[in-house]
Design goal:
Elements: E1 22-28, E2 37-43, H1 61-74, E3 77-83, H2 85-91, H3 93-106, E4 114-118, E5 128-132, H4 140-163, H5 169-172, H6 178-187, H7 198-211
Parallel strand pairs: 1-4, 4-5
Antiparallel strand pairs: 1-2, 2-3
Helix pairs in contact: 1-4, 2-3
């Protein structure tokens, strides 16, 4: 009777890794003379793609608002955070921006496997991260983050406009336009102006000289 040869046993390689969740991160409000800097983090749903995502600065306000609602409704999760005017003046605008980005990522309901950040610098994170120059025009999840951050900050400026109607926040959104600089000269800085930014610093210094 022939003995049966035992067949070699092979261990099948099992892939336990599912799809990596990618979070896009971007900011809005680094350049203005007033207001917090905002940052957003977004994890999109690959099964529910959103058409028309792009760099928020290249979209009309109407288009941004429409996409904002779509992102909020269809993304797997998203988070918007900010760093205050006080933090901007104390830390400097770059470090305050990194802080807002860090807070946005920490605010996500789901933890991403990797974070993609617009620009060339990364906030301190406990997650694998990559900085992508012009990422807001190249990577959909970063585009989505740029839209959320921009819309949230613009809406903040519009709400502040009601308290300080002479400064025109609803129009210039805090940026150093000619109209904004003129309003600063006439009415002075508000509590929301960044004291560490040169045009505001100069006005405060001038006011101190006049009062002394």
């Amino acid at each position: 009777m022939r003995s049966k040869k035992s067949l070699p046993l092979e261990q099948t390689a099992l892939n336990w890794d599912g799809p990596v969740l990618l979070a896009g991160v971007d900011e809005a409000g680094r350049g203005p003379l007033a207001g917090p800097v905002f940052a957003a983090a977004v994890i999109l749903d690959d099964l529910s793609p959103i058409k028309g995502l792009a760099d928020s600065k290249k979209l009309s306000p109407l288009k941004r608002d429409k996409l904002y609602d779509e992102i909020r409704a269809r993304a797997l999760c998203c988070s918007v955070a900010q760093a205050s005017v006080e933090e901007i003046d104390r830390l400097n605008i770059l470090q305050a921006t990194m802080l807002a980005m860090q807070r946005a990522v920490q605010g996500l309901r789901l933890k991403p496997g990797k974070v993609l950040v617009d620009g060339n610098r990364l906030p301190v994170l406990d997650i694998l991260a990559e900085a992508i120059i012009k990422g807001d025009s190249k990577v959909p999840c970063i585009s989505a983050a740029s839209i959320l951050a921009k819309v949230e900050r613009d809406r903040w400026c519009e709400s502040i406009d009601q308290a300080f109607p002479n400064h025109g926040f609803a129009q210039h959104k805090g940026y150093g336009t000619a109209a904004h600089l003129l309003a600063l000269q006439i009415h002075g800085p508000t509590i929301w102006h960044r004291r560490s930014f040169a045009p505001v610093t100069a006005l405060l210094h001038k006011a101190e000289q006049l009062s002394s």
